[in-house]
Design goal:
mainly alpha
C-alpha cells in the first residue's frame, strides 16, 4: 500500500472514533430536546469556536464559496436527519444504516469524479451492502431508518466535494464555511418549530458534541485530500465497530447473531481481501520469474 493512502486510512480511522463519540453525545440528549434546535445551537457554537482559529491564521479567504454554501446547506439537512435517527433508534442500528456511506462514496466517486473502481473494490462494496441489508432487515425499516440512509447519502456527497477544494486552503476555512452556511437553514427550521427544547443540558451537550465533531471533520478533510475517495472509503466502516462497542458499554445495546454476520460482511472484506489479493499477485509474480528462469 502506498504511504499517502496508508496515512489517509489511519487518519480516517481515528476520525471515525470521534464520529462515534458524536453519536454518543446525541444519545445523551434529554427527551424534550428538539433536533433542529439542538443542531442550530451546535452549528452556531461551532462557528464561535472556529472564529479564533480562523483569526489566528490571518483570516484566510476561500475561492470555493459556492461549493461551501452547497456543502453547508445540504449538510444541515443531513445532520438533522441523522440526529432524528439517533433520537429515535438504537445507536447500533443508526450506525449500521449510516455506514452505507462508504458504498455511496465509492459509487459517487466513480460517477461524479471519474475515479477508477477495481474489481476488488466492487467485491468489497457488494459484500458490505449485503452486510448492511442483513443488519437492517428491510421488513423492520421505518421512516427514521430511511432518513438516516438519506443522511448517509448527503454525507457521502459532501465528503466527495472536498476533492474539489485545493489542498492549499486552510482546514479552518473549510470547517468554518461548512458550519456558517448550515446556520441559516437550521434557523429557519428551528424558528418554524418555535425554538423548542432550549435548555442548559442541551447547550452543554451541544458544546461537547462540537469538540468531537470538529476533530472528526478536521481529520476527514486531511484524509480525503490525501487520497482518492474510493481508496480510503472502506476505513469509514471502522466507526461501526466503535459504535457497537459504545452502544454495549453505555446504552446496554448489543447485536444478535444475524447482525454480527452482517457486521463481518461489512468489515472483514475491507480488511482481508486487499491483503489476499496482494499475496496472490506476489505468488503469481514469483511463479512468472521462476518460469522465466527455467526457460532461460
Amino acid at each position: 500500500m502506498k504511504t499517502p493512502v496508508a496515512i489517509a486510512l489511519l487518519i480516517l480511522i481515528v476520525g471515525n472514533l470521534f464520529s462515534a463519540l458524536y453519536d454518543v453525545t446525541v444519545k445523551l440528549l434529554p427527551d424534550e430536546a428538539n433536533a433542529a434546535t439542538f443542531l442550530l445551537i451546535r452549528q452556531a457554537t461551532s462557528v464561535l469556536m472556529l472564529l479564533p482559529i480562523w483569526w489566528y491564521y490571518g483570516r484566510p479567504k476561500t475561492a470555493y464559496l459556492k461549493l461551501h454554501m452547497l456543502r453547508g446547506s445540504s449538510g444541515a439537512i443531513g445532520g438533522l436527519f441523522l440526529v432524528m435517527g439517533l433520537m429515535s433508534l438504537p445507536l447500533a442500528t443508526v450506525s449500521t444504516l449510516f455506514f452505507t456511506a462508504p458504498i455511496w462514496i465509492i459509487l459517487l466517486g466513480w460517477w461524479l469524479l471519474d475515479e477508477r473502481i477495481s474489481g476488488l473494490k466492487i467485491v468489497i462494496t457488494l459484500l458490505g451492502f449485503v452486510g448492511v441489508l442483513i443488519i437492517l432487515r428491510p421488513s423492520e425499516m421505518n421512516v427514521f431508518g430511511i432518513v438516516v440512509i438519506v443522511a448517509a447519502l448527503i454525507f457521502s456527497a459532501n465528503q466527495l466535494a472536498l476533492r474539489k477544494v485545493s489542498t492549499n486552503e486552510p482546514v479552518c476555512v473549510t470547517l468554518l464555511a461548512f458550519n456558517l452556511f448550515a446556520v441559516p437553514v437550521l434557523f429557519v427550521v428551528a424558528l418554524y418549530q418555535g425554538m423548542q427544547g432550549i435548555s442548559w443540558p442541551v447547550l452543554w451537550i451541544a458544546l461537547l458534541s462540537n469538540v468531537v465533531l470538529l476533530v472528526y471533520h478536521w481529520l476527514c478533510v486531511l484524509a480525503y485530500r490525501r487520497a482518492q475517495a474510493s481508496d480510503i472509503a472502506v476505513a469509514e466502516y471502522s466507526g461501526l465497530l466503535f459504535c457497537v462497542f459504545f452502544g454495549w458499554l453505555w446504552f446496554d445495546e448489543w447485536l444478535d447473531a444475524l447482525s454480527w454476520l452482517g457486521v463481518m460482511l461489512v468489515v472483514l472484506p475491507s480488511l482481508l481481501l486487499p491483503a489476499t489479493l496482494r499475496h496472490i499477485r506476489r505468488a503469481s509474480s514469483n511463479k512468472a520469474v521462476a518460469l522465466s528462469g527455467d526457460n532461460s
